[in-house]
Amino acid sequence: MLLDLDGQGPRHRQVYRALRRAILGGAFPPGSRLPPTRVLAHESGLSRNTILEAFEQLRVEGYLTARTGSGTFVAELLPEATLVVRPDDGRGHRPGDGGSPLPLSTSARRLAELAPRASRLTWSVRRPAAACDFRYGAPSFDDFPMTEWSRIVARRTRRASMRRLSYGPPEGSEELREALSRYLTRSRGVRCDPSRIVITHGTQQAINLVSDVLLDRGDRVAVEEPHYPGFTLPLEARGARLVYVDTDDDGLRVDVLARRAPVRLMCVTPSHQFPGGSLMPLRRRLELLELAERFDAGVLEDDYDSEFRYDGRPVACLQGIDTGGRVLYAGSASKLLFPALRIGWLVIPSNLVDAFVRAKAVADTGTPSLDQLVLADFIAEGHLERHVRRQRVRNARRREVLLDSIDADLGDRAAVHGARAGVHVVLWLPEVAAEHEPAIRRICLDRGVALYSVRSSYRRPPACVGFTVGYASVDESQIRRGVRTLREALVSLDLLR
Ligand SMILES: Cc1ncc(COP(=O)(O)O)c(C=O)c1O
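A: This is the predicted complex of the input protein with pyridoxal-5'-phosphate.
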């Protein structure tokens, strides 16, 4: 038998291809024995090593099996048969998925129960936004100083040294931690130095790190009601026992929590309760810290948007008045700049830094360094504070237009909560039963106005209609149109005259 060599490239590759073709073409059927390598070498005028090399490649790829003492055989099951792409089996298994899925962990099963649809866990915009989109969380992308940002990106990329292109410190780049520590002390009254900061992938990773470091399965964690699902879902999935504590106009009801059994961690949004909007006054902040001391608990302070404060100066954070080393302060670039940056920061009591750095290292070995360096320069050169100042003025104007429009179009049929800070308000329609909400949203959406229910932040769904209204990315004329459209929808459903 002469091998049909194609003359391309190294000899052993030619032999490999010739044999593979012969096997697939049926000249050597599955299970048949191949001629000895010595014979093939002699017949083709090639060295035996060349033939052996090709045999070895075919063996590792699964075309051949060698049986000691009896020679080399064509495999009964050729690799092509195992690599066949099966069509979708209609049960959601896509080609290549194989049979039944691997068994899920307890935490993944719990998450599937808590958030049955994956969409509950994605913050991304799935469909094209409506012309007037009151989506919560989107900052104004049009206002972002892209020219400055791109200039820094280009400069940092051009200057990236070999050291920079290797793994960075898991806690984050020194430059960013330095720039942030100055910024946070100045603007938020955070007590920190760079060594106490760990850079995270947004606040979302901060909550995961805090549970890794401070919580065991079954530990009790106090969360606010209403609450931020981005916190409650991962906590519950990891086996924490959530203790929902009501909030009022001053934030979390510390007196209510004080009557419950001790918790290991309290998650709070004291500077702008999410989504309700209240601001925790100093007196209650001190009570909360005292209770943390009594419970021997940590406090996770989520300070996600309080740079935007409209009546008076921003309120100093809880961490700044903590003398007991109990507060873990979480901040994020998501509202200040843009969420896709996925950069946040945790300011940690000094005696916990090592534990957090270890947790961050094993979680992901660190946040992408180039992005961190760009943000460091952006802060150090003053762009962040300039941007925040400008945004505060623009957001204040949008907020005013929103409040005026609600007043003009809905009057005392609407109640607005949480307008003193941040980039959203909660708009309640106290006289309209919650069952009408889907119809109202549908009519508005048909007219190009997207509204979002506040329900997902409530454990016990509210009885009346409530919307979380994000206004930072909606221009003023659209805000007016949006509220008018809501009014029209209510009138058309006979819910307002
Ligand atoms: C209450 C709250 N905390 C934190 C964040 C920021 O999360 P991240 O930094 O993961 O984008 C948000 C953003 O929507 C939020 O609403």
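The chain has a mean pLDDT of 92. Residues 137, 202-204, 228, 269, 274, 302, 304, 332, 334, 339, 344 surround pyridoxal-5'-phosphate (CB under 6 Å).
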